[in-house]
Design goal:
The complex is a heterodimer of chains A (about 300) and B (about 260). Chain A is of the alpha/beta class and about 300 residues long. Chain A has a single domain, classed as TIM Barrel (Alpha-Beta Barrel). Chain A is about 30% helix and about 20% strand. Chain A has 9 helices and 16 strands. Chain A has helices spanning about 80-90, 105-115, 135-140, 145-155, 170-180, 220-235, 245-255, 265-270, 275-290, and strands spanning about 5-10, 10-15, 15-20, 40-45, 60-65, 65-70, 95-100, 120-125, 160-165, 185-190, 195, 200, 205, 210-215, 240, 260-265. In chain A, strand 15, helix 7 (about 245-255) and strand 16 form a beta-alpha-beta unit. Chain A is globular, with a radius of gyration of 18 Å. Chain A starts with 5 loop residues before the first strand and ends in a 15-residue tail after the last helix. With about 260 residues, chain B is an alpha/beta fold. Chain B starts with 8 loop residues before the first strand and ends in a 6-residue tail after the last strand. Chain B folds into 3 domains: about 5-95, Elongation Factor Tu (Ef-tu), domain 3, CATH 2.40.30; about 100-215, Nucleotide-binding domain of ferredoxin-NADP reductase (FNR) module (Rossmann fold, 3-Layer(aba) Sandwich), CATH 3.40.50; about 215-255, Dihydroorotate dehydrogenase, electron transfer subunit (Dihydroorotate dehydrogenase B (pyrk subunit), domain 3, Ribbon), CATH 2.10.240. Chain B is built from 6 helices and 15 strands. In chain B, strand 8 (about 130-135), helix 4 (about 145-150) and strand 9 form a beta-alpha-beta unit. In chain B, strands 10-9-8-7-11-12-15 form a 7-stranded mixed beta sheet, sandwiched between helices. Bound molecules: flavin-adenine dinucleotide, flavin mononucleotide and FE2/S2 (inorganic) cluster.
């Protein structure tokens, strides 16, 4: 049994595997399959200051080896989250990550203040949701805005702060450097890539929102490349995600420079994916005679 | 330690064609059969596809440890599932969602439209002679499960849109007649939205409570991703409920069709 534990932004994880925000609810939907305590951590559904209804359905479309979603950050709001959701998972032995989204800088600050003193172990500031009209990705595509919102949240929280980056930019390393400079303790990437599908019979987009965020195995090579670029551009740790569905993908992500690996759409095909990835990784490390998983982080040998 | 029983692959013991491109699979899955209730669904893996396909559980045999799924080939995913044969295994998550109200002594009307008919069979088995089953299809060639419904002891009415079998017209005409006679406690329906709207408004008119099974495109199937949204009302407030977890069966009062 290899040592699977890693440390990211000062937070100890028992293993590097984390279900990604928006695909794991508030941590209670998969407990029929496995206890969340087997996971390194869990990133909870994106939460805003006030309740959000989300976009009209259909909100999902299938693509070759992937999918589009246009949920639009449906959530009960931070107060309802703290009152009704967090207490149910507060004592779970896994790293609990709050995914924070806001339409204004002030909203993000206020959510961060409300999370102080709670059982949340870490904040993942989502500046990259492509499915909402205000805030969301608007913060994530401009290095100045990304830096400003990071700074604002930094000044309102004592919790480790991870900033989630959008891939819908020309140079993701520029954004990563901007949030690092303004106090981020880690970055996570990638959020979904903006995409579209059309029903040729009705000539209507399948998603009622017309466009949506693409994820799943099809985006893996893009995500891997971005993780590698960002890991080389910043000193803070990287949480890698985008299309990871097997333990081999997770190993690639870590070799590219990720300290932890998040699993999203793969859960829809196989709810056991996170557990199978942890087990597969462990078996491979043993077979390779590698004592600690942290030895493989950033170990790719580029040509 | 890990309870991954839900994820085993299950043996298909029988495959039948009920109509052109309408398949019935009998699947051995004792644990699922034990837990399942009429109206719940299975989230079925289609080999080579990213997303699972939701299919209602049509029948449950707790003693034999089997369930039956009946589905129509609609697109590429259901076409792949339809290629499975007896002796193959099927990968499914089940039972998911909630089912119809089952309360002995209630007089019920069960309505099925087209491929919405199969889940009503297990409900009909529960209510037997206390049920009137009204099913509607496009035409005679699409009609399925009539003998199975008759075996439950229910009063069975068949309709077709084109009059090639049973009554000519929609299921709402016989429903109106049965409701006029009175003595109905509950109406349960599964089918296309247009049909459901008609059924719901008739039930409302007669002050009879009504449950409908809804469809929406799904991701996880377990309530975690919020893609299967359906507009609902609770305490006068509109919100999006999850078809996979809060449904697929809803009280008609709660959803906006
Ligand atoms: C709770 C529930 C129970 C169902 N029960 C049955 C049943 O018992 N028998 C049956 O024949 N069909 C049933 N359906 C519909 C069935 O899920 C679709 O026909 C099927 O998903 C179509 O897949 P496809 O790949 O053939 O079509 P495609 O059009 O190629 O599918 C593309 C994508 O859209 C989704 N999709 C397309 N149509 C529907 C739909 N009507 N509902 C939900 N998702 C859809 C698919 O799952 C897939 O993700 C049910 C749907 C739901 C939500
Ligand atoms: C249905 C769905 C909902 C999502 N909701 C959120 C969200 O609320 N906040 C967020 O930061 N990312 C959200 N994401 C993005 C994922 O966390 C992840 O970044 C992305 O899906 C790429 O990973 P994957 O390919 O493994 O799914 C969502 C993704 C999906 C599929
Ligand atoms: S399909 Fe994921 S919440 Fe319903």
């Amino acid at each position: 049994m290899a040592d699977l534990s890693v440390k990211m932004a000062g937070v100890p994880f028992k293993n590097p595997i984390i279900p990604a925000s928006g695909t794991f609810g508030f941590g209670r939907e998969y407990t029929d399959y496995y206890p969340v305590s087997v996971l390194g951590g869990m990133s909870l559904k994106g939460t805003t200051l006030h309740q959000r209804a989300g976009n009209p359905p259909p909100r999902i479309a299938e693509t070759p080896s992937g999918m589009l979603n246009s949920v639009g950050l449906q959530n009960p709001g931070i107060d309802a989250f703290l009152a009704h959701e967090l207490p149910l998972i507060a004592n779970e032995d896994t790293v609990k990550i709050a995914n924070v989204a806001g339409s204004t800088v002030e909203d993000c600050e206020e959510i961060a203040r409300k999370l102080e003193g709670t059982a949340i172990d870490m904040i993942e500031l989502n500046i990259s949701c492509p499915n909402v009209k205000q805030g969301g990705v608007a913060f994530g595509v401009d290095p100045k805005m990304a830096g400003a919102v990071t700074r604002a949240v930094r000044e309102n929280t004592t919790k480790p702060l991870m900033v989630k980056l959008s891939p819908n930019v020309t140079d993701i390393t520029e954004i990563a450097r901007a949030v690092e400079a303004e106090g981020a303790d880690a970055v996570s990437l990638i959020n979904t890539l903006l995409g579209m599908r059309i029903d040729i019979n009705t000539r209507r987009p399948i998603l009622k929102n017309n466009t949506g965020g693409m994820s799943g195995p099809a985006v893996f090579p893009i995500a891997l490349r971005m993780v590698w670029q960002v890991a080389n551009a910043v000193k803070i740790p990287v949480s890698g995600m985008g299309g990871v569905s097997t333990w081999k993908d997770a190993v690639e992500m870590m070799m590219a420079g990720a300290t932890t690996v998040q699993i999203g759409a793969a859960l829809f095909q196989n709810p056991m994916a996170p557990v199978e990835i942890i087990e597969g990784m462990n078996a491979w490390l043993d077979e390779q005679g590698i004592q600690s998983v942290s030895e493989i982080i950033g170990s790719v040998r580029p040509w | 330690m890990l309870q991954n029983e839900k994820l085993e692959k299950y043996l298909i013991v029988k495959k039948e064609m009920l109509a052109k491109s309408c398949v019935r699979l009998t699947i051995r899955c004792p644990e699922i059969a034990k837990k399942a209730s009429a109206g719940q669904f299975a989230h079925v893996r289609a080999n080579g596809f990213m997303l699972r396909r939701p299919i209602s559980i049509s029948e449950i045999d707790k003693e034999e440890g089997t369930i039956r799924l009946v589905f129509e080939v609609r697109g590429e995913g259901t076409a792949v599932i339809a290629e499975l044969r007896a002796g193959d295994t099927i990968d499914m998550l089940a039972p998911l969602g909630n089912g119809f109200t089952l309360e002995k002594g209630k007089k019920v009307v069960l309505l099925g439209g087209g491929i919405g008919t199969p889940p009503m069979l297990e409900v009909a088995k529960f209510y037997g002679a206390d049920a009137t089953v009204i099913t509607g299809f496009r035409s005679a060639s699409a009609v399925i499960l009539q003998d199975d419904f008759k075996k439950t002891g229910a009063n069975v009415v068949l309709c077709t849109d084109d009059g090639t079998a049973g009554e000519h017209g929609f299921v709402t005409a016989p429903l109106a007649r049965v409701l006029e006679e009175g003595n109905v406690d509950l109406v349960c329906a599964c089918g296309p939205n247009g049909m459901l709207k008609g059924v719901v408004s008739l039930a409302k008119e007669h002050g009879v409570s009504c449950e409908v099974s809804l469809e929406e495109r799904m991701g996880c199937g377990v309530g975690a991703c919020l893609v299967c949204a359906c507009k609902s009302v609770k305490n006068g407030e509109e919100y999006y409920a999850r078809v996979c977890k809060d449904g697929p069966v809803f009280n008609a009062e709660e959803v906006m069709l």
